[in-house]
Amino acid sequence: MASRTDTTAAADDPVDSVAAALSSASFVRLLASADGDGLAAAGLLARALRRVDVPFQVRVDALGAGRPSSGDDGLFVGVGSAYVNADATVAPETAPASLRASRIAAEVGGTDAAAPDPVLALAGVVADGAHPASVAGELVAAAEDAGSAVQRPGVSIPVDDAVDGLTHSTLLHAPFSGDHDAAAAAVSSLSRSDNGADSDSAADTETRRSLASRVALAVAGDNDAVPRAADAVERAVRPYTTPDAPVATLGGFADVLTATARERPGTGVALALGHGGRDAALDAWREHGRTVHSALDSASTTRHDGVFVARVDEAAAGTPGRLATLARLARDFRSPEPLVVAVGDGIAATSARESGAADAAATLAAEFPAAAVGWTGGPTRALAGIATGTPVPEMVAAIRRQST
Q: Measured between alpha carbons, how far is 234 from 313 in angstroms, rounded to an integer?
């Protein structure tokens, strides 16, 4: 696993130079971070390469183990994270990688370049935690003009069945999350199951609006929720429906991309490349959501000055991607502190509201090293390999020393 400071290519290489390198390469190896933003960005670049007949390979990697060696043929591009020996890097620290990848893809092939898929790019933006209209207004306008994205009331889930969507969504964490029966009870009095309903009648619009209100109230009214949760749930409501995409909404697409990147990378790559696999992707999304919500509900948590620790002992403990999602959900819906550390078996996932995740992960990897494993990530999310059995108080003390 490589830190962002150990790189040989800038994390924000110029658009034109990366596009030129991709266009002229004999073979390209795309190594994407294991999240929806990295996967979407890799999909955008791969589609551009396919259009100009440049052969490529796409891999998704959480811990740096998939990094090509310096002797491998082809152009090595780090996507969503910076890697040692990368020839080019698409991982800006202050913007979604998918937004930068969309701009690069638009220039691959020069004047003959075709516009990249705005919905895939926007799904990556949402997966990164950004609001699409705030950071990618041109892409939103392009998608709306093409009829590929239409905003309406409701909840951002990838399926037509609201119960299925609310049970497994990781855009939010509520008392019904991960529990099908509880989700069904939460929407039982609504007249329709919403969110993918084709009708735009006044009654269905009101049903969608009622569903969104009910979800927001459930999140805010949770006894374990922190005040930040009321704001965090906003990213899960007022969805953009996506009639041409593999799933029902833009937020749902982002959720599925993240889940597949972390559960079944091969399925995620196929989805990002436009090769289908919707059913397999939704199965991975359901498994990811169910497991992560259960693990968060049963995690042992402790609050420290500036750090909230969730010790995970369930099925998520040994899986980096599940720990990463759990850390983000804890940050947004459970933690009164700005930094969350989710601790599993030899792995720690850090999640920060604004910054500090990478610094914390680097500190943990340096002070409690695991053999042949370091850390990877950025300001708001990172992963670190740590020695199994490291005491939580020692971890917290190390992070606090680093931050002072």
A: 30
Contact 338, 306 (CB under 8 A): yes
State the Cα–Cα distance between residues 262 and 222, nearest whole angstrom. 27
Strand partners for 12: 90
For 4-116, which CATH superfamily applies? inorganic pyrophosphatase (n-terminal core) (3.90.1640.10)
Here the tokens at position 298 are 């049963």
**Residue 329 near residue 349 (C-beta atoms within 8 A):** no
Portions of the chain given CATH number 3.90.1640.10: 4-116
- Chain-centroid distance, C-alpha 314: 21
Model's pTM, two decimal places?
A: 0.93
* Calpha distance 324→22 (Å, rounded): 30
Q: Please give the C-alpha separations between residue 171 and each of 20, 333, 378, in angstroms, as whole numbers.
A: 36, 10, 20
Nearest to 340 by CA among 367, 366, 319, 312: 312
pLDDT tens-place string over residues 65-86: 556 665 568 999 999 988 878 9
Q: Boundaries of CATH 3.10.310.40 in the chain?
A: 299-403
pLDDT in tens, 130-152: 999 999 999 999 999 999 999 99
Residues ≥6 apart with Cβ < 8 Å to 204: 192, 194, 197
Q: How far apart are CA 295 and CA 327, in angstroms?
A: 11
Q: Which residue is associated with the tokens 């049903």?
A: 207
Q: Tell me what the mean pLDDT of segment 97-104 comes to.
A: 96
Second CATH level (architecture) for the domain 299-403: Roll (3.10)
| Rounded alpha-carbon distances, angstroms, from residue 199 to 152, 192, 212, 377, 399 | 12, 11, 17, 42, 52
Reference 55, options 23, 84, 102, 78; nearest CA is: 23
Q: Which helix (H) or strand (E) holds 361?
A: helix 357-367
Q: Is 106 exposed, middle or buried (0-12, 13-18, 19+ CB in 10 A)?
A: middle
Each residue's pLDDT tens digit, 279-313: 999 999 999 999 999 999 999 999 999 999 999 98
CA 101 to chain centre: 15
Rounded to whole angstroms, how far apart are CA atoms 48 and 38? Answer: 16
CA separation for the pair 355, 363 (Å, rounded): 14
